[in-house]
């Protein structure tokens, strides 16, 4: 794939002293679409980076699931910020977006949410226009706040970005398509751009025609949410790029794949069957979670004593 860390070469290596938001903006400015698998904890963040992707997104659905809850507004900002801190610590070179949900209150709360994520290492934050408590965009009945309130949230997020001075990337998401219609969702995306959103995210378009219209009628960077089994057609990245999308996000691929494999492993254990073909070699698992790096560091310091 074109958007892989292994293709960055010496130019990226020389730019490792740049801020994470600057790295994220550099990725988004490329003409090719960025494929963005989403993570929800330290090990999935490591896996995305290890696979060579240039960016990732901390999915609220996944974070909630990892803590034993549905993505229905049950987690606090403190819990989400703690997960963002974990992901920032696990990543070495690639930037990530944090899921800011509804901003956890009014516009002032939204500013605090953006600042708080920036403080723990997020390069970007997504803010959405659902009422609180929110719901996953492809499950159940949703409701959104009035347009002016939605725009105020995004404007506050952009103000926090600008006041922070770090160039954080703001994604403005609308779920209006599901409850107020496609025209309202388009208008909200336009308004979000007017108040400074870097990326717009029209959630859950239900047809290729809606996706094409959105890309044609809203300027700026745009995110496509490729949820397998969801409401939106899942298209190849090349097709999304041709439409005008900047990012192809895969929010639940890692969570769903690991859950399926875990269920199969548990079923086999229950019937006394082998799980060997489902597992990584132990040495590779140790490498993924950081033992190789740890042992190398320990050996270096042992040699100096």
TrEMBL record:
CDD domains: ICL_PEPM (cd00377). InterPro entries: ICL/PEPM (IPR039556), Pyrv/PenolPyrv_kinase-like_dom (IPR015813), Pyrv_kinase-like_dom_sf (IPR040442). Signal peptide: none annotated. GO terms for molecular function: catalytic activity. Coiled coil: none annotated. It comes from the Eukaryota. Pfam families: PEP_mutase. This is Carboxyvinyl-carboxyphosphonate phosphorylmutase.
